Amino acid sequence: MEKPILEVDNLRIRYGGASTEAVRGVSFTLGRERLGIVGESGSGKSTVGRALLRLLPGATITADKLRFGDLDLLTLSEREMLKVRGRRMSMILQDPKFSLNPIRRVGDQVAETYLRHFKCSKAEARDKALTMLEAVKIRDPKRVYDQYPHEISGGMGQRVMIAMMLLADPDLVIADEPTSALDVTVRLQVLNILDSLVRDRGIGLIMISHDLNLVRNFCDRVLIMYAGRVVETLAARDLDRAEHPYTRGLLAAQPRIGGGRAPLAVLDRQPEWLEEKA
Ligand SMILES: Nc1ncnc2c1ncn2[C@@H]1O[C@H](COP(=O)(O)OP(=O)(O)OP(=O)(O)O)[C@@H](O)[C@H]1O
Questions:
Q1: Taking 90 as the threshold, does the pLDDT of residue 127 lie above it?
Q2: Distance from first CA to last CA of the chain, Å, rounded?
Q3: Do you know which InterPro entries this protein is assigned to (predicted)?
Q4: Ligand 1 centre from 47 Cα, in Å?
């Protein structure tokens, strides 16, 4: 069997000063696949994603295992972590506006990412950046290269972020609600690009989302998180056969087109869902 890209065992995260853990014993492995993490707001999805990149200043992260390829993410020095972040492991966030520097041209920011990771001339980095903008289906890459972030649309911005990430050729991409700020057509384009990364480049992709329909259609497997723990893991195609009452509740709370005017189900939470061994 192929070695997993990521192995997470009993991951626990406590924000400084918090009385309870935000993540309570999460375990999963990731191969060259699309893994969805879903759950309501505050269930700990983003905290898990950021912990993998060790982007949680002030939080305490413990685990029985937190391995990324041959690296132990728990013991890696910050200096070594700098080589991993953005190079071997990347994150795409919901809104590219917060990730791009507003006062620098888009293309220069992409080229700079390449210069940061690889030794080459500025002209080579520019060529590489243009190739990558083209690879993410930006039609006029030379024009976009010279634009500022406020001059491009959200969908274009998201593709620029993906281009930046691709330059480094990562093994793992964590996409945190990457399409929720996009309209449906652009959303599909961005999903297609992410999908081809998994199929053509063999990366592992973690897709953090609120959207059960999205993960059902896009992912291979899904982790359902509730109050900091994984309550259920299942193949995306089996989502409708989920057994945990929380997952069933989430599914029942999805609005359906053509579903008539019946009131939406309200999730009735049970105290035992909070217990570590459900
Ligand atoms: N920087 C922080 N400091 C303290 N507590 C935090 C911080 N970030 C998140 N939390 C807490 O950790 C818990 C998990 O939050 P997290 O953002 O991971 O959830 P989420 O499932 O990703 O939610 P959302 O879908 O709204 O992004 C929440 O209780 C949240 O209030």
A1: yes
A2: 30
A3: AAA+_ATPase, ABC_Ni/Peptide_Import, ABC_transporter-like_ATP-bd, P-loop_NTPase
A4: 6
Ligand 1, residue 43: give the atom nearest the CA: 21
Q: Cα(248)–Cα(253) distance, rounded to whole angstroms?
A: 9
Q: How far is the CA of 40 from the centre of ligand 1 (A)?
A: 11
Q: 200 is written with which tokens?
A: 């053509």
103 CA to middle of ligand 1, Å? 30
Contact 215, 207 (CB under 8 A): yes
In the chain, alpha helices (H): 45-52, 78-84, 106-117, 122-135, 141-145, 154-167, 184-201, 212-218, 245-252
Half-sphere exposure of 15 (CA within 13 A, CB side): 10
Check if 49 has its Cβ closer than 6 Å to any atom of ligand 1. no
Q: What are the tokens at 5?
A: 């890209």
Q: Domain spanning 6-255+263-274: which superfamily?
A: P-loop containing nucleotide triphosphate hydrolases (3.40.50.300)
Express each pLDDT in 81-118 by its tens digit.
988 988 899 988 877 777 888 999 999 999 998 898 88
